[in-house]
Amino acid sequence: MENRLEELRDQKGWTQQELADQVAVSRQTIISLESGRYNPSILLAFRLARLFEMPIEDLFLYSEEDLNG
Amino acid sequence: MDSQSKWIATRVRLGWALLAVGVVLAGAGVWLEFQYLYVANNFRILTGLGILLGGIGIGFVVRYRPALKDTLSARRLNAEERDERTVLIRARAGNRAYWVSAALIYVGLMWVSFAWAGLPQLGSDAVWYYLAACVLIPFGVYIASILYDERNL
Fold this sequence. Notes:
The complex is a heterodimer. By secondary structure, chain A is mostly helical.
């Protein structure tokens, strides 16, 4: 699933480690999320959306292709 | 002391305890080996278990002790351990290792069960090596799976 995590993190001027610290995950998880290799749990998706003060669907871009992938 | 620091302190204590048990077991294994040379049982298994536990203990102490007085490190270590991706990777590795283990034991069981039908009989040495493989191969699969998923997930 595509997401805007890297773009939004850059806007805030945070490093991957700083973002990881704020949502209590490892830096490797942020790297995997940003590269689109890993889809977060609903809880982590909510934590990230709350942190960036936006709805989940503006952060994680769901498409019908993801349903088959 | 916050909950993360308490968690770190518990891990350090566990590390020291494992190290102590490991040293006692390894020492006992070496002592028994020289004391009872005539006993058929090989006490190196005890020594090996002691070395393994001691190694795990040292690993715990080395990993967690520096975070005892550093709250940021404690928080990061805690986050790494409970990280959902890490938990998923370990669960997948455990699942794969379980199926490999079940398959190996099933094959061994079937072999022994049907030895009367013409399959070569397994001697005690062969059974020992097969059982050792039943321990080591799933462990290898577990490690390989973690390495694979760490790179690809």
